[in-house]
């Protein structure tokens, strides 16, 4: 498949597999980048081609202004991915990426695209209440929250030069995630698989189960030992889960 110039800005194919039987589009967490899913791409290729989304304001897009509105991100990505999601396609999103994957899936299904599965990880259902305002706090409080969740190497965040590079995108992502709220309308018809850590301070199993309300299809909840980034310790099991779903 030939990738469009616009998609080349937003999507990273670490292991191109034009003959893959299915494609998995991966949406990173707040402060995350496409490279987080490089190991997933390596593990699934060449049977499944991974398309990792790269948000503005990080890594090779660090000179671009980050987007702090999840609905704006969803609109842009729906346009980009409309031409990249032909055939058998599934979405995987972690934390903020789960909400974004859901919103993009809604938009694409309205255009006639039917996903194989929507995997939503480490995120409460869209209609579950939330009142976090971490994005409004100072830099130290924001970084303390990131360290608490364990998604980033603490030594990296202690480097002042690196902090100055990552803070704008991190704050923007937190704002997008925290101000996101469910807008009533058509949901999705594809199956939703919600994944959560049993010690996640950001989402309970009950909140993750609320994703069942957002699909007219099947729903499954998978719980793993661990916190918000439980998936770092259970990557092999999650990759097997994804591969099994996409193989079917």
Automatic annotation (TrEMBL):
Pfam families: Thioesterase. Belongs to the thioesterase family. One of its GO terms (molecular function) is hydrolase activity. The keyword Hydrolase applies. GO terms for biological process: lipid biosynthetic process. Keywords: Hydrolase. SUPFAM superfamilies: alpha/beta-Hydrolases. This is Thioesterase.
